Amino acid sequence: MRRRHVLAAAGVLAGTAATGRLTRPAGDDELLEAARGPEGGGEAATRTETILPDTDHETTLYEIDAPADGPTVMVFGGVHGDERNGIDVAGEVTEWRPDEGTLVVAPETNRVAVENDSREGDDGDLNRHFPVGGEPASDLARGVWDAVERHRPDVVLDLHRSLGIYGVHRQYVGQAIFHSPNADGDAIANYLDDVGIPWYMPLHRFTAVTSAMNGPLLFHRAHRELGAIAYLFETTAFLLDRDAMVELTRLATAAVLERHGLLEREGTR
Asked: If residue 140 lies in a helix (H) or strand (E), which one and from where to where?
């Protein structure tokens, strides 16, 4: 049985509204060591390309190819520019070294919004620009979607942050994993609860939600158009500090990569 790791400072009681900010969980060092690979980067090869070069939306896409064949996973951070946990983790993931397959990462998908530390960019909410039955609704959305079509990922993971708790705060969706019907959302949510959520924070346990995939979000379109296994990850700022949000996002990303064959722990190689 996995150890449960403590997020909060001593003295926080179950069911209390708030007695302080929560700190980073210890997490799963074994899995994160597998993600980061051997010192020096191992045999994986990294290439970069640019989405919408020579425009205000220019942003870098990283492609990390493992020495062994396997699936392609695309990870997006910064679709909303003020959700720093996804930006931070996607930036780290550009240095990860998969054991198999290809890892494609956009750390600052909406670079204008990231630079302005704002949810939306010049054209509004990028994550509402991928409608059913039509072309992407902005230049940036078209550039992002062109990159998705070029790489034709088997799995897409979009990293986000909310402000409340799913099912408790009506307008917020934190501590949830939205996923396509063919995904492993329940298993990943259970893993995160096991390694990241202490017993006295029951409201912060992750909820896995199967999405109808008929909306205008990027992960919806990836499933509809390409048949990709698709996830949208939401941690919360409610009683979690930035380190805690980053660590949960990091663990979720590593769990998706392990679940879909890009990472192997040392004992299973």
From this structure: helix 139-151
